[in-house]
């Protein structure tokens, strides 16, 4: 072995003793200690007393198309500085690790652009090894809770698994940084966030946007006495669509049982009625117009849906309250039972609705977050470890500078 090969800089403190090709075409490189004194793994002081020697097979980064394995002698030191008997400190291998830091760094780059399953197949390392490396990387970056300077929050839930299992995500409304993710959507589930925020942090929160989730509302009011709850337009209108527009549409279809052609038109009009008018194609807009002209009940609930949105765009609380009274009067005059029931339930949340005139914020940005969460799940073919999944979400939304 030439001096150039024996003194490669990749393996500080060691020299190459031999290199052989294994049956699977990988390379096995045997190393031996150099003349430099070993370093204690506990106190990182130079030490000369060696208690015992062992050899460890370590995987290094590939060389072209060849897998590279290292046969490394590991000395266990009897340190006269700190008295510890520990393995020596090797700058390019973490303690107890079976892979080099060069390989770990390469894997950390790969997992940012490829699913864990694909990286495992590419490197021929176990799935759990790749996942552990990525988890430790994310833990270093996002494991420590930080909410300094946060004044406004956005809260929403998303589907974690099938079977009505949910998780809650909380975001800084100004920087769009995910602050916290936790399983379930109950008061108990979100309480750890406010405990991490602390009394001082909770006192700085001035507004929280959310849907009409009573658990979120009660917990925010308990921990953040100065915070104003702002109910989100998107969720309210979506619920109006489900509880009122859909109900009236079904009722009208049932009335037309003896007229199958007209009934079929109404039954197939669900998305025309629920979708925003500016998102409709030209032919869809024509169909919607014809449908509303032919059915007074559907025309009424469609108008109510449009007028309901205008409350959130009021320039002041006073104007918002005027729009609310006008909308509420229209609902009562419509004599449509689903609309009347919805309006009476919504009245309890009026303060949070009118607060949108002061705090122009909503949880619609979290709808984009939810879409990206679905992409992360699809890329990973699902997640077995919720903590790992939540770190992935935090990493995907680091936020923008203030």
Please render the helix and strand layout as text.
Blueprint: H1 3-6, E1 14-21, E2 27-33, E3 50-63, E4 66-78, E5 85-87, H2 101-110, H3 116-123, H4 127-142, E6 152-161, E7 165-172, E8 178-183, H5 187-204, E9 207-210, H6 214-223, E10 228-231, H7 233-255, H8 260-267, H9 270-274, H10 282-294, H11 296-312, H12 317-334, H13 337-346, H14 350-354, H15 364-379, H16 386-396
Parallel strand pairs: 2-4, 6-9, 9-10
Antiparallel strand pairs: 1-2, 3-4, 4-5, 6-7, 7-8
E-strand count: 10
β-strand amount: 15-25%
Instruction: Please provide the ordered H/E string of secondary-structure elements.
Output: HEEEEEHHHEEEHEHEHHHHHHHHHH
Q: What's the overall average pLDDT, rounded? A: 88
> Overall 3D geometry?
elongated
Low-confidence stretches: none
Distance between the termini: 57 Å
The helix count comes to 16
Task: Give the fraction of residues assigned to helices.
Answer: 40-55%
Biggest pleated sheet: 5 strands, mixed
Number of domains: 3
Query: What's the Cα radius of gyration?
Result: 31 Å
Instruction: Quickly give the structural class.
Output: alpha/beta
